[in-house]
Design brief:
Number of helices: 2
Strand order of the largest sheet: 1-5-4-3-2-6-9
Number of domains: 1
Helix content: 10-25%
Distance between the termini: 32 Å
Largest sheet: 7 strands, antiparallel
Order of helices and strands: EHEEEEEEEHE
Length: 148
């Protein structure tokens, strides 16, 4: 769930204690992992609805002025990495096929398949030089085989 709070002036943004970061989260729509470049304001655990320790991140998207709060109670998958210009997550489409002047793209997996997360975790193991701010991944499993 994402909550939004408008920040009125640029001076309020400059007064905040913020840090350039990249946030990798699972997409609410397909379940794939997406990357967001953000100004990190705050992160941690808090009580939310029926969850005693829901994970939250308060942030501003790079180039925007609206302060947002991302809350995930059940099975969170949030990875915060220091800085911007970090690698893009693995592509979740297969190679496109062409048929009668149409381009057909299909997903590697079904919607919300746990293999999206395992694919990301396997891919992320290669980037040991990245500085991790916080790791709220409920599932850190990796693929035991190569995915085509």
């Amino acid at each position: 769930m994402i909550c939004r709070q408008r920040i009125e002036t640029d001076s309020e943004i400059t007064k905040m204690d913020k840090e350039k970061a990249t946030m990798y989260v699972t997409s609410e729509f397909f379940g794939s992992v997406v990357k967001m470049e953000i100004y990190l304001l705050e992160h941690g655990k808090q009580e939310y609805a029926q969850y005693k320790d829901a994970t939250f991140v308060k942030y501003i998207i790079k180039g925007k002025r609206i302060k947002r709060k991302y809350i995930k109670g059940y099975n969170p998958f949030i990875l915060l990495v220091k800085g911007w210009d970090t690698p893009e997550p693995p592509e979740w489409h297969k190679e496109p096929t062409y048929s009668n002047e149409m381009v057909i793209k299909e997903s590697k997996y079904l919607c919300h398949d746990e293999l999206f997360v395992k694919d990301f975790n396997t891919w992320f193991m290669d980037f040991k030089n990245l500085s991790i701010i916080a790791d709220y991944r409920g599932n850190k499993d990796v693929h035991e085989f190569a995915v085509s």
